[in-house]
Design brief:
Lipoprotein; mainly beta; LolA/LolB/LppX; elongated; 34% strand; 5 helices; signal; 12% helix
Length: 284
């Protein structure tokens, strides 16, 4: 699967890179609730101590560490990027290299000419995307069921290969506020919102070691990004949204966090290179 966003906001995957309910059709990412700014006043405003600040900071750090002992995530990831929207449902893994096995609406990938199915299976394995396609009677796809697309070079429009990056960013969130309880797909969860900036991300050892993308590019060229996280009564993350600017967001709805999972590349004999096919997914 190939889209134009990577590790948290600079990239797509499922993507990875992967972050909206479990209905059958495409779903829009949760709308982040933005706090109303306080009107400017020339008069000094007394600073009121915030007794909950330390607790919220500690919670964000625990959330960021939640995935450290886990190496896989079953989730729905919705990527909205400059007018393009792609939804990915399935398995995302991380370790030495991010990988995934997901399905995406064929129309959102603009692959109707290559697949008659409503959804297309997308694999990310060893730095390449594999798209399930319908075999053709001639050409590079003759008798083959997969099209291979190399992962693009990372830039400010990279590739979302690890949806957990958004959760890891919680440790770097500043100004976290509690927006109250909300119902998330039948689960009552508390909604927290904060801001992460490039400097904090660049210094985050967890993100550096994850290797999904250089941390400084995660806000996709912006100086900061908004992070919204929903947490259930047991302190477990049930979803998060990274918003990098107008029309640029990655949302993740968690089904399960688990242990190591293996994802294998399709057989070479059943795979054709996208360059030989003469096309690639529009979201790539």
């Amino acid at each position: 699967m190939r889209t134009r966003v990577l590790a948290a906001c600079a990239a797509v995957a499922a993507t990875a890179v992967a972050l909206a309910g479990c209905s059958s059709g495409p779903a829009a990412p949760r709308r982040a609730v933005r706090p109303v700014p306080v009107p400017f006043s020339a008069s000094p405003v007394p600073v009121t101590p915030d007794p909950g600040r330390a607790a919220r900071t500690a919670l964000m750090r625990r959330l960021a560490a939640y995935g450290d002992a886990r190496q896989s995530l079953v989730a729905t990831e919705n990527v909205a990027w400059d007018g393009r929207k792609v939804r990915f449902d399935g398995l995302f893994t991380w370790g030495s290299r991010p990988a995934m096995d997901v399905r995406a609406p064929t129309a959102q990938l603009a692959m109707q000419e290559l697949s008659a199915s409503d959804t297309t299976e997308v694999l990310l394995v060893d730095g390449a995307f594999y798209y399930g396609v319908g075999p053709r009677p001639s050409g590079a796809l003759r008798g083959r069921h997969w099209m291979k697309v190399p992962v693009p070079r990372l830039s400010e429009e990279g590739l979302q290969a690890n949806p957990l990056d958004g959760l890891w960013m919680a440790a770097d969130a500043a100004g976290v506020i509690d927006l109250g309880s909300q119902n998330v797909d039948g689960t009552v969860a508390t909604h927290y919102q904060g801001t992460v900036d490039r400097a904090a991300l660049a210094a985050d050892r967890r993100l550096v070691l994850a290797g999904s993308a250089p941390p400084a590019v995660l806000p996709a060229g912006a100086e900061s990004a908004q992070l919204d996280v929903w947490v259930d009564a047991r302190g477990r993350p049930v979803g998060w949204v990274v918003t990098c600017g107008p029309g640029r967001s990655i949302s993740v709805d968690v089904t399960a966090l688990g242990g190591p999972r293996s994802i294998a590349a399709p057989p070479v004999a059943d795979t054709a290179d996208a360059a030989a096919v003469g096309g690639r997914p529009a979201a790539a």
